[in-house]
Amino acid sequence: MKTVFERSRRWDYFATWVIRAGGCTIILCVIAMLLLIAKVALPLFYAPTADLFSKFSLNNSVLAVGMDEWLENSFMFEESGKVSFWDLAQKKMKKEIKISPLPSNVHGTIQRIKTLRSNSYALLWNDGSVTIEEVCFIPEYDSQGKRHFNFSVERRAALPSASKYLPLDYAVSISEEGDVTSVFLWKGGRLTIYSQSVTSDFLGNQKTEEIHSEIKENTYEEISCLVQSSEGQLFVGTRQGTLWHWNLKDPENPVFVERTLVSDAGKAVSCLNFVLGENSITVGDSSGKMSVWSSVTATKPQALRDGKTSSLTLLHTLKGHESPLISLWPSERTRSMLSVDEKGKIHLSHLTTERELFSFQTEKPLIHVALSAQDNGLLAVDSAGECFVWRLSMPHSEITLRTLFGKVWYEGYSKPEYCWQSSASTDEFEPKLSLTPLIFGSIKATVYAMFFAAPLALMGAVYISQFASLRVKKIIKPTLEIMAAVPSVVIGFLAALWFAPFLERSLVSFFLCFALLPFFLLAFLLVWPNISELAWMKKQRKGVEWIWVIPLLLFSFMLAYHWGPWIEEHCFQSNAQQWIFDHWGIRYDQRNSILIAFALGFAVIPIIFTMAEDALSNVPSSLKAASYALGASRWQTVWRVILPSSSPGIFAGLMIGLGRAVGETMIVFMVTGNTPIMDLSPFNGMRTLSANIAVEIPEAPVDGTLYRVLFLSAVLLFLLTFTLNTGAELIRQRLRKKYARF
Predict the structure, then answer these.
(1) What is the Cα–Cα distance from 596 to 687, expressed in whole angstroms?
(2) Domain 435-738 superfamily per CATH
(3) Which of 156, 522, 556, 601 could form a disulfide with 452 if both were Cys (CB 3.0 to 4.6 A apart)?
(4) How far apart are CA 563 and CA 557, in angstroms?
(5) Strand partners, 281
(6) pLDDT per residue over 536-584, tens digit each?
């Protein structure tokens, strides 16, 4: 006997440690999974880095510099018209190319240089002509796979001299069709336009068309700088702190758009340049302030009365310099801007986040700068002719806590918004990666689902456990539990392809049903006490009252179905959706929150019902017997004794159902419409964190910003469910202690 007892104790001891080890292993696996996901998302918040990897001295003074995207070669424009190519690793010149304004002037010198786009420059020569040169790096690979480069400078256009005098300033642009438009600033603030376009007929014969015109509007202010976009938008900055805007799409007839004060206290506008995409413009002034402006749809009554459809609006204010700005260099890959002040200090700032990424300063002032095409390198030349090359690493510069969770004023928007838009038809778009609409969508879908599922599941559990007969319980409970085995993709499929069109056609009938059903149920409850006292009703078995409710429900459904079209025709002008939009401004989407309430609620009901019913059924029968003995009715016993005693189990069921709703993917993916908007209206859809991961992850480049933001979404989803479950467990334990005396 002793041997059997000791053997049982050994097995109990062994089973205890196996269970503990299994539980600890599960906990460790969950923690490891969270750490793995967090590890992928963590680089989003790493600080950018810059390493100086090359420094050398130049032989001659330069006017402009640039570099290739591989950070292997750089080029320098010299005043004499030479373009020298340097090897950054070996720090020596590899090739030199001489260019000239026109064949008749081989000894021309460069007066000024304006950067157009990737390695393209507009050169103003001493004879007044302007040429557009493109520096080309053509990589070639030998049999060993080693990369070599062919260097060349190709002329894209040549504009003859407009006057025997040199202009004070100029701006040049090239359209996608190759048309060139130049604007010259002369003494007295006069602005002239020269446009050159080349067309070809069906035989291939080319014809050059030239247009000369002048801007007639007098700025009556001293012009300090000007810049022109490839779409023909001319912006002129003045020393009085204003920005003048002309539309030059028709160079022969320039159209004045607006005048805007862009500088505080009338500080002079010292430099201008466009942001990536040329839809916004960065303004630098003589106080060192830098700001971003963009055309925004007019909403003010005065602007609308003046006939303005849009107006130049301040979007972002960036960290400025301590001295006046002299030049701005935009990134060709991200919405970043390189700024240089009079003391030769450089700032690299991201415009959307208003964040300073880097700041550079050397012993001598830096006067010429250039960013590589991939934003992975910065080249700068100081006043002493020293050339510095930094290797940059800023893979997720557009991510901050503000862009992830706060309102941001994006380009083209009329006000700051929470917005998610990870891609567009062009690489020049502004990424919008706010997680707030996704968190809102997850909460909204969960709340709507619980509003539908929780009352039905709890009322069903109360009836089945306390009022229904044993025969009914054996049928209904297994049936509801089997509902939990229905795949979520099937529920989403039926909701999206069958229920959504049906609801759209029968919207009035749907809401009419919700009005008639409580009315008939209330009427049934009022007459039921009288009916139940009838002699033939007393012969009926207890727990089958629900049989009398079924015809009432069917009658309510049929009445709503037949009355709905008549009410819609006479009260809503035969189109309830349009009536709602006209009177309330609410648009009805076929994929909406009503659908998610039914579809997701259908998936959650079995979980809540099963756990609540088990908790209600496990209340000791002695408590019910004591309540009945004191004269309480069945409903009083349920309300005052059964529900409080089983509240920990009921609450646990609600929380598990809530966690199921928060983490559901397929149903919300198929039913919600996946529109990342923040609107409480039941007629609109939403996008949840889980559905967003399913939608975006196939197109997200590995280790890219979108890829890591999706992993951050998974971390937030994990933390959300963990917080809900932890809070639910704490509340359940308190309820358990409170009602333990029962």
Answers:
(1) 11
(2) MetI-like (1.10.3720.10)
(3) 601
(4) 10
(5) 274, 293
(6) 665 665 656 667 777 888 888 888 888 888 888 888 888 888 888 888 8
Instruction: Name the band, by pLDDT with cuts 50, 70 and 90, for residue 228.
Output: very high
702 phi and psi, to 5 degrees? -60, 130
CA distance 139 to 336: 27
Report the C-alpha gap between 84 and 383 in whole angstroms: 18
d(CA 588, CA 596) in angstroms, rounded, equals 14
Q: Could you read off the pLDDT of 140-199 as tens digits, one per residue?
A: 887 787 888 889 999 888 888 877 788 989 999 888 778 889 999 988 888 999 988 877
**Residue-level length of the chain:** 742
Secondary structure (DSSP) of 520-578: HHHHHHHHHHHHHTSHHHHTSPTT-THHHHHHHHHHHHHHHHHHHHHHHHHHSTT-HHH
pLDDT in tens, 74-116: 999 998 889 999 999 888 899 999 888 866 556 788 999 998 8
DSSP labels, 117-173 = ETTEEEEEETTS-EEEEEEEEEEEE-TT--EEEEEEEEEEEEE--S-SSPPSEEEEE
- Kindly provide the b/e burial profile for residues 175-196, where b requires at least 16 CB atoms within 10 angstroms of the residue's own CB: eeeebbbbbbbbeebebbbbbb
Number of Cβ within a 10 Å radius of residue 54 = 19
C-alpha–C-alpha distance, residues 481 and 467, integer Å: 19
Rounded CA-CA distance 217/130 in Å is 25
* Interatomic CA distance for residues 348 and 356, integer angstroms: 6
CA distance 341 to 325: 4
* Cβ atoms of residues 82 and 96 within 8 Å: yes
Distance CA 671, CA 426 (A): 29
What does the H/E/C string look like for 178-194?
Answer: CCEEEEEECHHHCEEEE
Cα dihedral angle (443, 448, 450, 455), rounded to 10 degrees?
160
Could you give the 3-state DSSP secondary structure of residue 591?
coil
Per residue in 461-501, pLDDT (tens digit) is 888 888 877 888 888 888 888 888 888 889 989 998 899 88
pLDDT of residue 243: 92
Supply 298's token pair. 């007019």
Instruction: Give the DSSP letter string of 279-346.
Output: SEEEEEETTS-EEEEEEEE--SHHHHHTT-SEEEEEEEEE---SS-EEEEEE-SSSSEEEEEETT--E
Given a contact cutoff of 8 angstroms between Cβ atoms, the answer to whether 383 and 367 are in contact is yes
Q: pTM higher than 0.85, yes or no? A: yes
* Residues contacting 551, CB < 8 A, separation 6+: none
Q: Identify the CA nearest to 441 among candidates 592, 589, 605, 586.
A: 592
Give the confidence band of 392 by pLDDT, cuts at 50, 70, 90.
Answer: very high
* 3-state per-residue secondary structure call for 78-127: ECCCEEEEEECCCCEEEEEEECCCCCCCCCCCEEEEEEEECCEEEEEECC
- Report d(CA 431, CA 277) in Å as an integer: 12
Q: What is the mean pLDDT of the chain?
A: 86
Q: Who has greater pLDDT, 200 or 362? A: 362
What does the domain layout of the chain look like in residue ranges?
Answer: 435-738
- Looking up tokens 């959307």, which residue turns up? 352
